[in-house]
What we know:
Largest sheet: 3 strands, antiparallel
Strand content: 15-25%
Amino acid sequence: MATVSLRNSASxxxxxxxxxxxPELNAVCLYHKKVVDHYENPRNVGSxxxxxxxxxxxxxxxxxxxxxxKLQIEVDENGKIVDAKFKTFGCGSAIASSSLATEWxxxxxxxxxxKIKNTDIAKELCLPPVKLHCSMLAEDxxxxxxxxxxxxxxxxxxxxxxxxx
Length: 165
């Protein structure tokens, strides 16, 4: 029993001394420069008016890791996404995925934005397999925002039909 305790103490001491004297060993997992860029300089952070008929809001979360992502799109009368905003609570990869997603949806039609896949986001950001859930969350947020927008458009048509009858 004393031997196991002594071995554990020696292992902890070795680990501690490596961290103190060789701090570069602390960085076990490094982010790709694209992730760091989007994390340090996030694009399109903020909110749009969620009550506006031409704004779709998607709010998604990953309970396993605690990431929460809100992505909003603003669509013009021609069906083109003219603005996108996000707010994300999560790791650097989640923030980077959100930031990239807002850049990619801008200028696309609603149908084209639906074609954005998490694998494309992950590939662009060079996400490691352990961070793929972040790109999946971004794809889910895009889909949720588009779904909200389409629902508002259907409600708008129903209201017009009631008003004209």
